[in-house]
Design brief:
11 strands, mainly beta
Length: about 120
């Protein structure tokens, strides 16, 4: 089993930046694809970004391309989401996810963190 713990959320003004972290533990944690999803109140949980097990491939939803960067440090079993030029619509609870096969679909991820709140203010 893989355990995931997110951190780094908070309140930031539009145009600002936040860096989310996801600490992973458990057997073969570094062998999993990692992803970030987000969920705003009253909305479905949506895909944000994913990175393969080696960190050589990344994928982003169109709305965050050029602003967000997903990365991972397998030596520390940690994934990150650097969020720049934040917009009001980025406000959501951000969840870290892990799965054996990377995907944009939340159903393909087996493990989830508890979520961390990101609030962007005007």
């Amino acid at each position: 089993q893989v355990q995931l713990v997110e951190s780094g959320g908070g309140l930031v003004q539009a145009g600002g930046s936040l860096r989310l972290s996801c600490a992973a533990s458990g057997r073969a944690a570094s062998s999993y694809a990692m992803a970030w999803f987000r969920q705003a109140p009253g909305q479905v949980r949506e895909f944000v970004a994913a990175i393969n097990w080696s960190g050589t491939s990344t994928f982003y939803t169109d709305s965050v391309k050029g602003r967000f960067t997903i990365s991972r440090d397998n030596a520390q079993n940690t994934a990150h989401l650097q969020m720049n030029i934040l917009k009001l619509e980025d406000t959501a609870v951000y969840f870290c996810a892990a799965g054996l096969y990377g995907s944009t679909a939340k159903g393909n991820y087996d493990y989830w963190g508890q979520g961390t709140q990101v609030t962007v203010s005007s």
